[in-house]
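Weekly puzzle thread! Below is a chain. First person to post its structure in token form gets bragging rights.
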Amino acid sequence: MNYISTRGKSEPVGFSEAVLMGLARDGGLLLPESYPDFGDRLTELAGLSYVDLAIEIFKPFVNNELTDEELKQLVDNSYSSFASEEVTPLLFGKSHHLLELYQGPTLAFKDVALQFLGNLFEILLKKTGKTLNILGATSGDTGSAAIYGVRGKENINIFMLHPKGKVSPIQERQMTTVLDDNVHNIAIHGNFDDGQRIVKEIFGDLNFRDEYALGAVNSINWARIMAQITYYFYAAFRLREKSPELPLQFSVPTGNFGDILAGYIAKQMGLPVNRLIIATNENDILARVIETGRYSLQDVHATLSPSMDIQISSNFERLLFDACGRDADKVNQLMDDLKSNGEFVLDDEPLTYIRKLFSAKRVDTEQTLNTIRSVYEQEGWIIDPHTAVGVAAAEEISAQPVICLATADAAKFPAAVERAINTSPPQPKALDGIFDKETRCLESEPSSDSVKSIIRQHV
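Winning reply:
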């Protein structure tokens, strides 16, 4: 299986090259040439453990570039640090169900993909003898999960941008208290979209990219999406065991569209998903494009769910590619319109394609707080504000139970939780003493030249 660019101007590449490349050289995002069909294997796969299921999901994408033994060891190592043997357990509630994605070492759903990706980088670099300088941007959770996944690893440096003062205090500390020599945190004077823009600009400078052996850890990296497909299958199987009559629906709090894109790809692989609910906060560009067909940039608003305070949803381009019949020329035109005019408008055909599977709902601050409160009162669960956005959207869109993706431990956002229920969330051991630890962080203006200078100084 080869990987092709959504922009159509890069040569197809194999799995290993796609992972190490991250962003295609033409500025597009990589996707497999076709999706494997698991439709006839669902009964066989349903009884597997999470780890064994992940191995089966990954095999066709890896395309024999890792041996079965290497792949098994990679997956085993990646999920051995998770608190639950199920990796992503499904909690059944009175109204809706929670898929707990925060059992990993940094207490956020990003661990599911980034513990795997960090170990995958290490294996591929040993095979090739290369070094890798990872450049990424985070709105909160990607940074800590990526840093944890590669800290101390040989032949890897990581440069992680975060918007100064615009992530939660715990998210910031989870990044800046990691003092390994290969970890470089950079607080930019801007927002997440600035960080994401800088990353894409630097990757677009092919001479710099090649000279400094840059790799991507954001969800522009295909392996991030691939790793997240597994928990859609796993959750579906657990739901079928308990309630086989229910339609399979997922509600996903999302800003950059990576998490929900994995659900879309699971559907393309034969998982009988009935609906994917895009849950947004006040930064509602995804809800607006589903409703109106117009993808129009607005100012970023600070909310209780900062990891979703995003306007430019990079992974939406992958969905557009499929919705446009994999016509790279159409995608290029849409991306050119966005760059030139700050918006693009979808034709009827791609919009109809998207609306067949996706619904969307905007959830504001009051709804978020009310949902944290109501879930606590009805279920006894303490959920974080991002998860609350997903639950609130599910309640508005579906009268039947929905699997709501719980994306972070509530302890990472104590201020919002206390505001909602007047009770502090329990603090996991992983956060003990985090505000007493030494920190290290650089600062930068929100420009690619400034960040390039930092990379030059530390490589």
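Puzzle host: Confirmed. Bonus trivia for everyone else. The mean pLDDT is 96.
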